[in-house]
């Protein structure tokens, strides 16, 4: 297709008349890849925005092109969806060196304002249109509405929860707490592939991802999903990775799912992080900061809240303890013998780290600054559950006939591993060693920093594929804050992996734990969080299905707490 010179100059010239470019597309319906390919450039992966502040926001797209030569695209930010009033515009260049992804920071915007944005190829073809919003000014007391999401295993189900996020009437930002992609392959026994084959959601590439090209291809597959594109186009995202953006149960020097035949750990981690920063709407690090350090950062939502995103996975985390490897010693007969005292001593070792000193000092400074500025709530965006959650004595609670019937449906080796785990869970040990429960000394350091800052903390957690509402307390029993844990977008329930009925697991965990106010292992969905200077309100929103459409989105439970004087938090109440 030919494009006349006048129109081409209008598209890339500063003096171009607003509205002379390509017709904007509706944000809920990104065009199919074949409909937005023109002269070798496509916008098949949609658009996204992220990391807003009061006067700027980052914009993202992928301007796919044939070949690796650098090419340019124009970007526009408008005050209206018809792009009649342009607020900011410019030209950005990309190439195969960054997988044809584009990131620009649109500046000079007004605080607390909705904007629309798009990208335009040299040919004149426009991208889908996205909607974004800047942060409110410091004095603003307007309510803040956030969608909090985590854990989207593409093969295991349809992204109906992302569609539900895109359809929220009021939404100021999406906070994604990690496991945005998963690394597993397409073998019959790979995670989520039972549903993956039924739904024809086969991982690309169809193997575990290890190289830079692998990670790029997996990100591309995820962002080809129309529901995920719609959620990105609805509001700015504030993101952090967890483990599966690299590989399962990662820590500073390795990962449970990184094997010697998969190459050097540092090289794999570097490849995964490079792809993550190419494909996600997160600001690039300053020259003095690593990619890992660039993920911990703060945002201010006027007087209602501040948000502090943590990195707890790759910068400082000590290897997770493991019950199979760390709970037993070899007895005189050469057989494994439980050693709970030794295990608990290792678990409580002060040398075990999750955040590290530099990040902890940064967090205390930013929390104190937010409190001094009058922000009512300090949100802690982190990957894993912070509350103390002791594993119930499932063995004493489940009749043997019931347990046997459930386990009989599983492979023999799986039956034995579940029986071993259930026997351990009767010994007053944590339910999840990959959460803050696996790092109790580090959690006490964090709680001390929260107290010194005068914060009114609301911890936000993903990873567990479970809805949680928790009251946080330190080792002395003193109140520290509250916690909302979001379930997964699609990833399986952990109760399924234990072979337990959902209702039974919910009741057992709730009854065994003083800090837990509500838990539900069953639904898939997200958390809608509304904050004002007076109250924090969490709505646990569940989707009726992840295996078909249409679906229904409904509020499972709503809990709220009041902001009381001297940084205190009122009782968590169901409303």
UniProtKB/TrEMBL annotation:
Domain PhoD-like phosphatase metallophosphatase per the UniProt entry, residue ranges: 146-539
Pfam entry (one): PhoD_N
Start and end residues of each Phospholipase D N-terminal domain: 45-134
PANTHER family: PHOSPHATASE, PUTATIVE (AFU_ORTHOLOGUE AFUA_6G08710)-RELATED
Record protein name field: Alkaline phosphatase D family protein
């Amino acid at each position: 297709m030919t494009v006349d010179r006048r129109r081409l100059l209008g598209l890339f010239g500063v003096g171009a008349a607003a509205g002379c470019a390509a017709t904007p597309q509706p944000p809920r319906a990104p065009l199919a890849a074949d409909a937005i390919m023109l002269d070798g450039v496509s916008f098949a992966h949609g658009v996204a925005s992220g990391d807003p502040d009061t006067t700027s926001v980052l914009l993202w797209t992928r301007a796919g092109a044939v070949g690796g030569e650098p090419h340019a695209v124009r970007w526009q930010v408008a005050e209206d969806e018809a792009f009649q009033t342009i607020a900011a515009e410019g030209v950005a260049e990309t190439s195969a060196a960054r997988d044809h992804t584009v990131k620009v920071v649109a500046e000079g915007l007004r605080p607390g304002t909705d904007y629309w944005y798009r990208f335009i190829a040299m040919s004149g073809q426009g991208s889908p249109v996205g909607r974004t919003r800047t942060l409110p000014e410091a004095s603003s007391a307007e309510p803040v509405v956030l969608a909090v999401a985590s854990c989207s295993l593409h093969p295991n189900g349809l992204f109906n929860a992302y569609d539900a996020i895109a359809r929220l009437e009021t939404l100021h930002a999406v906070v994604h707490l990690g496991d945005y992609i998963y690394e597993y392959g397409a073998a019959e026994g790979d995670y989520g592939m039972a549903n993956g084959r039924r739904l024809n959601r086969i991982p690309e590439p169809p193997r575990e991802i290890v190289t830079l090209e692998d990670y790029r291809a997996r990100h591309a597959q995820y962002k080809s999903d129309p529901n995920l594109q719609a959620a990105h186009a609805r509001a700015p995202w504030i993101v952090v990775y967890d483990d599966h953006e690299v590989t399962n149960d990662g820590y500073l020097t390795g990962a449970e799912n990184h094997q010697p035949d998969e190459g050097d750990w540092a090289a794999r981690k570097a490849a995964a992080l490079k792809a993550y920063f190419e494909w996600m709407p997160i600001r690039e690090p300053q020259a003095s900061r690593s990619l890992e350090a660039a993920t911990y950062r703060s945002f201010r939502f006027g007087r209602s809240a501040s948000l502090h995103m943590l990195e707890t996975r790759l910068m400082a985390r000590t290897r997770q303890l493991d019950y199979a490897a760390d709970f037993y010693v070899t007895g005189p007969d050469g057989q494994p013998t439980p050693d709970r005292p030794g295990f608990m001593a290792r678990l409580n070792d002060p040398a075990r780290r999750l955040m590290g000193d530099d990040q902890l000092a940064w967090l205390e400074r930013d929390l104190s600054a937010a409190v001094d500025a009058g922000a009512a709530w300090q949100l802690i965006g982190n990957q894993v559950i912070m509350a103390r959650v002791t594993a119930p004595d499932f063995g004493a609670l489940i009749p043997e006939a019931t347990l046997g019937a459930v386990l009989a449906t599983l492979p023999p080796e799986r039956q034995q591993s579940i029986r071993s785990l259930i026997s351990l869970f009767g010994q007053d040990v944590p339910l999840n060693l990959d959460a803050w429960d696996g790092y109790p000394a580090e959690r006490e350091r964090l709680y001390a920093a929260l107290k010194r800052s005068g914060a009114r903390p609301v911890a936000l957690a993903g990873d567990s594929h479970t809805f949680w509402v928790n009251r946080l307390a330190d080792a002395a029993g003193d109140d520290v804050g509250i916690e909302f844990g979001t379930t997964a977008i699609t990833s399986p329930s952990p109760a399924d992996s234990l072979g337990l009925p959902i209702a039974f697991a919910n009741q057992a965990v709730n009854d065994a734990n003083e800090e837990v106010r509500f838990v539900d292992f069953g639904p898939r969905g997200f958390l809608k969080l509304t904050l004002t200077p007076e109250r924090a309100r969490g709505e646990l929103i569940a989707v009726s299905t992840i295996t078909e459409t249409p679906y229904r989105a409904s509020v499972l439970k709503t809990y709220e707490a009041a902001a009381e004087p001297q940084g205190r938090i009122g009782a968590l109440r169901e409303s």
